């Protein structure tokens, strides 16, 4: 499933595409919100791995503006619950992720991103 926790880790890997290939832009998406079990310890541990600006912008693209523009120094329960929702409960079921550099489209069907490249696209 494409959730923003996954999206925040993906970059274009097409041949020759080595700069400005992250974050992938979400395009023509169908989104569904599905509840997930809240785990504050997991979120605290995952925070250092997040590319914050990319996450906030992707959440905005999907209509969620609950995250602050900058990661707060003090992490409280309200912040963690908003982060949980954005990372783990917003699912992209259909659409595409598009490289901002080369324009390569990675389709998303039934919640699964196709990150495979054609033979000529492999670097």
Key traits:
123 residues, alpha+beta, N-terminal domain of TfIIb
Can you describe what's shown?
With 123 residues, the chain is an alpha+beta fold. The chain has a single domain, classed as N-terminal domain of TfIIb, CATH 2.20.25. It is 28% helix and 22% strand. It has four helices and five strands, in the order E-H-E-H-H-H-E-E-E. It has helices spanning 4-7, 40-46, 52-61, 77-89; strands at 2-3, 25-33, 90-98, 105-109, 112-113. Strands 1, 2, 3, 4 and 5 form a five-stranded antiparallel beta sheet that branches. Strand 4 (105-109) and strand 5 (112-113) form a beta hairpin. The longest helix is centred in the C-terminal third of the chain and has 13 residues, at 77-89. The radius of gyration is 15 Å and the shape is globular. The two termini are 26 Å apart. 20% of the residues are buried. The mean pLDDT is 94. This is Trm112p-domain-containing protein.
What would you say about this model in short?
This is Trm112p-domain-containing protein. With 123 residues, the protein is α+β, with helices and mostly antiparallel strands.
Biggest pleated-sheet summary = 5 strands, antiparallel
Work out the radius of gyration. 15 Å
CATH architecture: Single Sheet
Mean pLDDT: 94
Distance between the termini: 26 Å
Number of discrete domains: 1
Beta-strand content: 15-25%
CATH-defined fold name = N-terminal domain of TfIIb
How many DSSP-defined strands?
5
What is the 3D shape? globular
Tally of DSSP helical segments: 4
Give, in order, the helices and strands: EHEHHHEEE
Structural class, from secondary structure content? alpha+beta
- Percentage of residues assigned to helices: 25-40%
Low-confidence stretches at least 5 residues in length (pLDDT < 50)? none
CATH class, please?
Mainly Beta
């Amino acid at each position: 499933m494409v959730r923003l926790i996954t999206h925040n880790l993906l970059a274009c890997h097409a041949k020759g595409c080595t700069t400005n290939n992250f974050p992938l832009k979400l395009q023509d998406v169908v989104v569904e919100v599905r509840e997930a079990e809240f785990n504050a310890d997991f979120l605290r541990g995952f925070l250092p791995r997040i590319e914050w600006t990319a996450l906030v912008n992707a959440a905005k693209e999907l209509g969620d503006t609950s995250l602050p523009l900058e990661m707060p120094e003090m992490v409280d329960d309200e912040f963690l619950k908003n982060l949980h929702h954005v990372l783990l409960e917003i699912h992209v079921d259909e659409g595409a992720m598009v490289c901002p550099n080369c324009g390569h489209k990675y389709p998303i069907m039934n919640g699964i991103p196709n990150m495979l490249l054609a033979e000529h696209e492999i670097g």
